[in-house]
Design goal:
This protein has 166 residues and is an alpha+beta fold. The protein has 5 helices and 5 strands.
């Protein structure tokens, strides 16, 4: 079984060589709502060969706009935890390792190493979720100093389940 000498913790140092090998489509406004939040998440996958096996490397980097960066700084969102939990490490040991991702980690580039491809894909999914959480924070920050009108509709099931007053 592969043992990694260094702990499986994330660093905020992006891997420029990994990003250089990844093709990233240009950011466009297509599909984004006018005035809405759309953060681009760049995922760079690479691998390192060890004596006995391959170590998979994932770097996740959020690419906020200048306005979104200003909001993050103004409302101190860079310190907000956008993902946390445990991940399974090792093919045989299935060791649970805790992790925590802050918005600043995503903006600077969050790199994690994995012993197996399944763990890397699971973590990649979590990084997508963390970017969704960051988008919720940014959307809330945009609405400060204003007013939001929300239409709430009564669902048919709720009306049928309402107790009778008779």
């Amino acid at each position: 079984m592969l043992r990694i000498k260094e702990p499986l913790t994330a660093t905020c140092d992006p891997l420029p060589e990994a990003r250089a090998r990844t093709t990233i489509p240009p950011q466009s406004a297509a599909g984004a709502e006018e005035g809405g939040t759309r953060v681009q998440l760049k995922l760079a996958r690479s691998q390192e060969q060890t004596r006995r096996s391959v170590v998979f490397v994932l770097t996740a980097t959020a690419a906020p706009t200048q306005e979104e960066m200003q909001l993050m700084q103004k409302y101190q969102l860079l310190n907000e935890v956008v993902a946390m939990g445990t991940m399974t490490v090792g093919l045989l040991s299935k060791q649970q390792v805790p992790f925590q991702v802050r918005a600043s980690h995503l903006v600077q580039g969050y790199t994690q190493k994995f012993e197996d491809l399944g763990s890397m894909l699971d973590f990649e999914s979590r990084m997508k979720g963390s970017c969704q959480m960051l988008m919720h924070y940014l959307e809330a920050a945009r609405k400060f100093g204003g007013q939001e009108v929300i239409d709430i509709h009564l669902e048919k099931e709720a009306v049928a389940a309402r107790p009778s007053l008779a």
